[in-house]
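Hey,
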Amino acid sequence: MEKLNVKPINNWQYEKELYDKGLKYIGGVDEVGRGPLIGPVVAACCVLPSDFKLEGLTDSKKLTEKKREQFYPYIIAQSLAYGIGIVQPEEIDKINIYEATKKAMIMAINQVKKQIKLEHVLIDAMPLNLDIPSTSIIKGDLKSISIAAASVIAKVTRDHMMIELDKKYPEYGFASHKGYPTKKHIEAIYKYGLIDGYRVTYSPVKEYLAKQ
C-alpha cells in the first residue's frame, strides 16, 4: 500500500491493556447511519493483529472519502476477522434507531464469533448486553485503533450502498449527502417525493408526509 501523507496516531491504549492480561482476540465495534433519513444503520466489528500499523487511522468521519477508500481494503486484508451488521429502515421505524443500532452491532459481533474465539469487545459509546466481556468507550473511534478500523468498514459499506442508490435515483443526490438531512436533500424530497427506504419516523420525513 502506498504511504499516505498523514501523521500516525497512537491509539492502542485499550488494546494493550487487554493484551497485557493475556487476551489475543479483541474486537472494535462502531456504527454509522444513525442520522440519515434513508437507508440502513450499519455496524462493523473488526479484530486487528497486535502488529497492525496504518498511519492516520482514526474516526472515519474525520477522514476524507478518498482516505477511507484507501484504508478500507487494507483494513479488510489485514484484519484477523471482521463482521458487518445491517438493520434496514423498516426495522428502524419499528424498534427505534437506538435499538436498531444495538442490534446491528450485535449482528456484527456474532459474525466475528463464528470466525474466531472473540475474547473482548471495545464499543464506541454504546453499552451492549453480551455473553463476552466488553468496554464501552465514549468517543471510542478516536481512542481505540480497533474501533477506528470498524468505523471505516461501517462507513465505507454504507456509503457504497448510498452510491448505488444514487445510480438509480440521481436526482436525490445520495452520492454526495449519503442520506443525511441536508438542505438539498430535503428540497429533493419535496420535489420528487419519497422512494422506498425512507425512515418515516424521522422528523423531516414525517413533516413531509403530514403535508401531503
